[in-house]
Amino acid sequence: MAEKRNIRVDVYGDPIDTTLVNCIARLDELLNSIPDEFRSEVKVETDYDTHYECTSAFLNVYYYRPETDEEFETRLEKEKQNIEDRKLRLQKELEQLNAIEFQKPA
Fold first, then answer.
1. In which region does residue 77 sit, left (phi positive, over 0), alpha (psi from -120 to 50) or beta (all else)?
2. Domain residues of the chain, as ranges?
3. 52 — alpha (psi -120 to 50), left (phi > 0) or beta?
4. I need a labelling partner for 25 at 20 to 30 A (CA). Which of 8, 13, 94, 95 fits?
5. Is it the case that residue 96 has pLDDT exceeding 90?
6. 3-state DSSP call for residue 35?
7. For residue range 13-38, what is the model confidence (pLDDT) as tens digits?
8. Within the chain, what is the greatest distance between any pair of CA atoms?
9. CA neighbours closer than 13 Å in the CB half-sphere of residue 100
10. 27-80 pLDDT tens trace
């Protein structure tokens, strides 16, 4: 039986502001946008990108929450459809292989 999964919720993924005051204000704004029950689990990652001798820092803020019933049902339906699609592709491939007449060596 399938089980519900945790869903990653990306809250922010943009360049870090260059001033500390603005950066702290933005982080506070982001934290306040997250539901209370998930705030203690919020993750922060930094990433860096260098182009033409210029380095930019990016901040990624995210948390995980349980899948809703609707998301769970939607995921299960997609997984079932993917299985059916794969079965059909494999069946067509098998039919094509069976249609090939192999010559026996002399």
1. alpha
2. 8-65, 66-100
3. left
4. 8
5. no
6. coil
7. 777 777 889 888 888 988 999 999 99
8. 83
9. 8
10. 898 899 999 999 999 998 888 877 777 777 788 889 999 999 999 999 999 999
Strand arrangement of the beta sheet that strand 43-51 belongs to:
6-15, 54-66, 43-51
Residue with tokens 């007449």: 101
Task: Work out whether the CA dihedral 51, 14, 6, 74 comes out positive or negative.
Answer: negative
User: 53: left (phi > 0), else alpha (psi -120 to 50), else beta?
Assistant: left
For residue 57, what are its two tokens?
């820092």
At position 5, the amino acid (one-letter code) is: R
Which tokens go with 14? 């943009």
Could you give phi then psi for residue 53, rounded to 5 degrees?
65, 20
> 59 in the Ramachandran plot: left (φ > 0), alpha (ψ -120 to 50) or beta?
beta
Question: Which pLDDT belongs to residue 36?
Answer: 95
pLDDT at 37: 95
